[in-house]
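Extended Data, record Phosphopantetheine adenylyltransferase
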Amino acid sequence: MKKSACFPGSFDPFTKGHEDIIRKGLDLFDEIVIAVGINSTKNYLFPLENRLKHIQSCFENQPKIRVITYQKLTVDLCKDEGCNYILRGLRDVKDFNYEVPIALMNRSMTDIETVFLIPDTSLFAINATIIREIYKNGGKIDKYVTNFEQLVK
């Protein structure tokens, strides 16, 4: 049976921490679907098309990766895309406390299991919210975001 994982998020922006989780997941899964969620009530800093192109540029030579958008429950997306796992990253206890109840709820609704991976310790401080604030205030973020130029084209 093919092992497919969904890596959901808004990815505003897709950071080196996200990238690290995906690269670790490639050793575990036959396919990873990076699913960029669309929430009409959320104000994104980077346009959807830029985020998609940016993520695709990070994995352009990786046939095990697909990048898509979605606007539904993540577990419904997983069923539609044939994913039997949800892949998530954990940096600290705050992430754990946020992610575990969601994983338990997802498992109670379906048979989809969540797999948690820990990023490299050098990436623990990278947080998309902080990266957005640095960028909005004129700071450089290319140290935290691979192929940054694809994001702002």
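Summary. Residues 41 and 101 are 23 Å apart (CA to CA).
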